[in-house]
Amino acid sequence: MMRFCLIVSFAMAIFACGSGRNSASSAAMHNETPDTLLPVPATEEEWKQRLTSEEYRVLRQKGTERPFSSPFEQVWDSGTYVCKGCGNELFRSETKFNAGCGWPSFYETIDKSKVKEIVDYSHNMIRTEVVCGRCNGHLGHVFNDGYGQPTGLRYCINGVSLGFRKK
What we know:
Elements: H1 2-15, H2 24-29, H3 44-50, H4 53-59, E1 79-83, E2 89-92, E3 96-97, E4 105-106, E5 115-120, E6 127-132, E7 138-143, E8 154-157, E9 162-166
Antiparallel strand pairs: 1-2, 1-9, 3-4, 4-8, 5-6, 6-7, 7-8
């Protein structure tokens, strides 16, 4: 399984766009998200004003952050992970696990309505994309590979698309 994660990590790193990346310290400064839902912008210009260039690239343009670049990959504090674009609550910290694949991983969402799953045929692969159920921001992908116990699901999420509300 670890070999599969490393292969996926390598493949995603190859396809990840390098422009507009924030450093880990810069990304950490932008991880606070208000406790209430944010209004969903109507235009792309409004999204560009709200998000950093890297957040915009991932959430709105379906980009992928470099593996092992997210400060959230090794954060184990208690709390709730929310959509960086709109504040929608997505994952509880209790469902986070170390998949070793380079992205924060969770075995279930707070509620099935919080995310949408879309078949993704990009990069000559068939995967299941995960987007925010409220603002349609790209979060990452979910794999039904048996790795995330007890559900067998591994929500492999771009940390830049997340905010965190510490308990």
